[in-house]
Amino acid sequence: xxxxxxxxxLSFACVFANLQCEHKKPNxxxxxxxxxxxxxxxxRNHVMEELKASMxxxxxxxxxxxxxxxxPGFAELFFKAAREERDHAIKLIHYLLMRGELTSDVSNMIxxxxxxxxxxxASGATALRDALVLESSVTKKIRGLIIVCESxxxxxxYHLVDYLTGDFLTExxxxxxxxxxxxxxxxxxxxxxxxxxxxxxxxxxx
Amino acid sequence: xxxxxxxxxLVAVVSCSDECYRDVVATCSNxxxxxxxxxxxxxxxYGAIENLEGDLQxxxxxxxxxxxxxxxxxxxxxxxxxxRAGFEKLFRGLSDDLWDDxxxxxxxxxxxxxxxxxxxIASELEQEKPSxxxxxxxxxxxxxxxxxxxxxxxxxxxxxxxxxxNDHHDPExxxxxxxKFMEKHRDAIRxxxxxxxxxxxxxxxxxxxxxxxxxxxxxxx
Lengths: 206, 221
Fold this sequence. Notes:
Chain A is mostly helical. Chain A is 70% helix and 0% strand.
């Protein structure tokens, strides 16, 4: 009985010792928040797409870092690409925040199933080829995003579309050209000088 | 006949020793020329890295996924209703640090001849579905718990590497964790604990909302 009373008073003490941690939700007009829902959902999903690409690059970087692969130039190239993809995800998050979005359901925006599908590559050239394919698939998804956001009958989101075409697509096309050029040089080198070609190319990358 | 004798002699040499040099001799000899270029014994593995590999993989994955948790916590504080740029900056910084730690752990593993496995994820990490949209003091508390759990993971790895588990003794792994991880995390934990102390005293009074505003302003600096 005594113990019960003690527990009871203790629990009361806890309640009364509560700090004022929660504060009143402010009352702010919402008519400035004008993004269409299908567009918002698409952008949120694209955050995950960028992170998936990031982890795929991370797997390439981990592969070329291995002692029995030993291509530090390729590894650095792909670690850098992994960082860039994460930065793209963060840029999209910042954009949504600027437009008044992401006020709820943020916790489930990034799920814990980002393990990359492919983790082994036969050569530097196959990895560059995969990277180019990955970039073009991301480009396609950004174009899909643009189409959804500009063809919402109730709201054509010019501003986001301009940001996606000007910023994101520019980076995609420049990145793809860079990868294609690298792959071209590497393939020409390896045509006559297989192992030596890849060795020299890797040292140039580092 | 002579070839057979040489072959058996070589097999004997290879089987009684596992050194890289023997491997090279065997690979470079004419009789085994078909195995050219395959030096299975010339890897970077030494010490107990093979026995610590799985734990290091889980550790690297935890660092990367926790960096995403902090990114979402930062996102929550960046929305117009919360609008706490200081808290956003704090959690974004924690996210960036764990992301870098994750990459550095992968680089470290490959330095020691180990490989990364992105599917080797701690089960408690996969199962949990935490809310990351928290009030300020709650968020500091959750961040402190996350950092302490990672510190404990590092301590467990260190304990195994220090030889308290059979066949795990690897002072180089222990040293790496001490130098590259533990010192930084000690400071992160101390900073968060300090924030928890300050914030709890600021919230204990009639000016709680003003206290929060000023504390967020301080975090922006």
